[in-house]
Amino acid sequence: MKPSASSTSAPAPALDFASVFQRLGPHVAALDACLREQIESFETEIRDMADYCIDTSGKRIRPSLVFLSGWRNETVNPALVKVAAVIELVHLATLVHDDIMDEADIRRGRDTAVRSFGPEAAVLLGDALFAHALHLAAQFPTTEVCSAVAESTRRVCAGEIIQTMRRGTTEISRADYFRVIDLKTAELFRVSCRLGARLAEFSDAFVDAAATYGRQLGIAYQIYDDLADFFGEEARIGKTLGTDLVSGKLTLPLLELGDALPEDERAGLVAELTGQAKPDMARRLGQLQEFAIFERVESEIERQMEIGEEALAPFSDQPPVARLLTLGSTLRAQIAVLRP
């Protein structure tokens, strides 16, 4: 367990995922150039809209996983650049659709696509990004890349559908919650690591281990994101916060809170999640702190990361491993910043 904010020792500067990605240097430049080139493939009437989504301000976690899992040396591998662009386009499409469903106004510190272009145009823009990602994936000489990306895209969409259909209900178990985040978030982390290691021609055993690490990191990251929805600062996180309770999305912090609350208070939380009462963010945030929900959720994040790290342990001599593990360290540092 990390030291609390009240510790007398000065906290170490927090790392973030953008800083990890920036260390990849030439890989960053090659990916950005590849993404910029894709804009010309869109119809002239929507290029400005595509350009708005294909920006270079994101954390680029999934491309980082491609590059790090396929790391052999400093040389930029064009195949890794292309598959990183494919996966980032899929991710950007999911963000466009997420913001429509969440009615979010801010993403990456600026207006969301839905706020800029309206929901009708934004949903089709997300579809266009998905389609172009698959078009790019189909250009690989092997069908494995396109097949893997198409399957992952379907699984991500399935996760979003399941979550959307369950909004406004409290009939959700922990198993249901983990099933959704495995699909909607961890899947792209998993396929990023799998394809990075595969295209770099590592052994099948390492490809499987890298994929496992990616999946577990993805689960941990989504739980962190759900925690940040309550404990983050909008200016620093760069997106609209507090949307989970307002939209009736039952995440792990809220599941833990529901278990901890007395029966009468739990009924009030249920009423807020089901739309029968106005969400009281200040009250719920106070209760999250009162019942030490942050610490409970942090423990689960740690458990998920340890599973992934154990999968990589037999391959400690492989070039990607030490670099992949920096992402776990970075996530731990990000969690420490959230600590109330």
Automatic annotation (TrEMBL):
**Source taxon at top rank:** Bacteria
Where along the sequence do coiled-coil regions lie?
none
Q: Which InterPro entries match?
A: Isoprenoid_synthase_dom_sf, Polyprenyl_synt, Polyprenyl_synt_CS
Q: Which Gene3D superfamilies match?
A: Farnesyl Diphosphate Synthase (1.10.600.10)
Alphabetically sorted, this entry's keywords are: Magnesium, Metal-binding, Transferase
Signal peptide (residue range)? none
State whether keyword Magnesium applies: yes
| Pfam families listed in its UniProt record | polyprenyl_synt
Answer yes or no on keyword Magnesium: yes
Q: Which cofactor does it need?
A: Mg(2+)
Describe the family membership recorded for this protein in Swiss-Prot or TrEMBL. Answer: Belongs to the FPP/GGPP synthase family.
Its name, as the record gives it, is Polyprenyl synthetase family protein
Q: Which organism is it from?
A: Actomonas aquatica
Q: What is the lineage of its organism?
A: Bacteria, Pseudomonadati, Verrucomicrobiota, Opitutia, Opitutales
